[in-house]
Amino acid sequence: MENRNIEIKFRVDDIEDVEKTIQQISDVSVVIIPQDDIFFNIINNQEEGARLKLRQFKNGSGEMIYYIRADIQGPKLSKYTKIDFDSKTCPSVREVFSKSNGILGTVSKVRHLYMIGQTRVHVDRVDGLGNFVEFEVVLKPDETIAKGEKIATELMKKLGIQENSLVSGAYMDLILQKK
């Protein structure tokens, strides 16, 4: 089943200060999630912004995520499909996709997950890249893209996020640009 959300990502200099503000307006306590995202090459796919990754967690489980998201700054639609794997299956999935598609690269990060209304707020410390915050406004089937964009923009204003800190692509793109 395809899901939709509105995403926005930005670079953060003082991550502790931003996280304090997020904690004050969050609906839940933080969940800390160390994770590695293994990005695979996508074969025979002409859709711009398409990506395929296996997210692996410390307990060995994981989730395969295929998503399409434009590489633009500011709020943008992301359409995704996700499959969860237990710790017994996940290594085999990685092996199969590594052999069939090849690995594009890996992103290692520690994610602090918060919820503000229907928005997942990720405070990410990304190895080799720095600190970021990402919003994922989860859209209900009947909600418009415009409504999700409005929620993301209002949250940006609450946190005092400046336009010049916005990031357009995935962390993997930023890592590849550094090489």
From TrEMBL:
Gene3D superfamilies: Hypothetical Protein Pfu-838710-001. SMART domains: CYTH. It comes from the Eukaryota. Signal peptide: none annotated. Coiled coil: none annotated. GO terms for molecular function: pyrophosphatase activity. Pfam families: CYTH. Residues 3-177 form the CYTH domain. InterPro entries: Adenylyl_cyclase_CyaB, CYTH-like_dom_sf, CYTH_domain. PANTHER family: CYTH DOMAIN-CONTAINING PROTEIN (PTHR21028:SF2), SI:CH211-156B7.4 (PTHR21028). This is CYTH domain-containing protein. It comes from Trichogramma kaykai. The lineage of its organism: Eukaryota, Metazoa, Ecdysozoa, Arthropoda, Hexapoda.
